[in-house]
Design brief:
Elements (H helix, E strand, L loop, with lengths): L1 E8 L16 H13 L6 E3 L8 E10 L9 H14 L4 E9 L11 E9 L19 H10 L23 E10 L2 E8 L6 H13 L5 H10 L14 E7 L16
Parallel strand pairs: 3-8
Antiparallel strand pairs: 1-3, 1-4, 2-3, 5-7, 5-8, 6-7
Helix pairs in contact: 1-2, 3-4
Amino acid sequence: MRYFIEMAYDGSAYHGWQLQPNASSVQEVLTDALRKLTRDASLDVMGAGRTDTGVHADYFVAHFNTDAHVCPDSPEAESRAIFKLNSILPPDVAVYSLQAVDPKLHSRFSARSRTYHYRLTLDKQPMLRHFSFRPFFSLDFQAMNEAAELLKSVDDFTSFSKLGTQVKTNICDVSVARWFEEAPGRFTFEIKANRFLRNMVRAVVGTLFEVGKGKMSLDEFRDVIARRDRCAAGSSVAAAGLSLVDIEYPVGLGFVPKARRVIV
């Protein structure tokens, strides 16, 4: 039986989602918790993507296969299983739903889109320090939005990809790229695409910062994209401000999102 999990995590203490040989990961702690819950020592977990060290997930989806009877098809049984699982998991990882799905549904490869937010606070906010970036420079958000709009007509994102990755293509389809003010002094960059390259969002934001600081013109931003050269783009920004906030899946294969919030 295949099960889908909706969850969230504070990535501050982890070296990303993916299993690491000598470092703690979210995948590791979730796998350990599920093995204890199901008593299935061979159980493995697959996630919707791999977030980097220190990156968070307001919303994340994972799946696993097991012959263990995790929960009968009833809301009460699901609630009991989720309660037990959250009791095993550390405080910085939470599971919101657990449901059986069609075995053809895959948390990574079936995803139609993903949305990330990069959050800024312009003043000192102690309670947000692990979940946002505070820039010590002025930014022109209108100029950054003009540059961000160009990303929706780009196909090859090589200039914003980490070097040495093993992906077959750097082609991505970005449908949303914008800055907006969430609250006074708090700005968010939202980007939605069918797929993302490693380090892509942080490299995009770092390059947009160059535009916002007046160090890169719109034409120069276009040139960075056209050159398909990571060295031409800006530096990657700090991980703490970045969070995966939404993942979309096709309907009709048994997965009914319960924790997903609609991103407008």
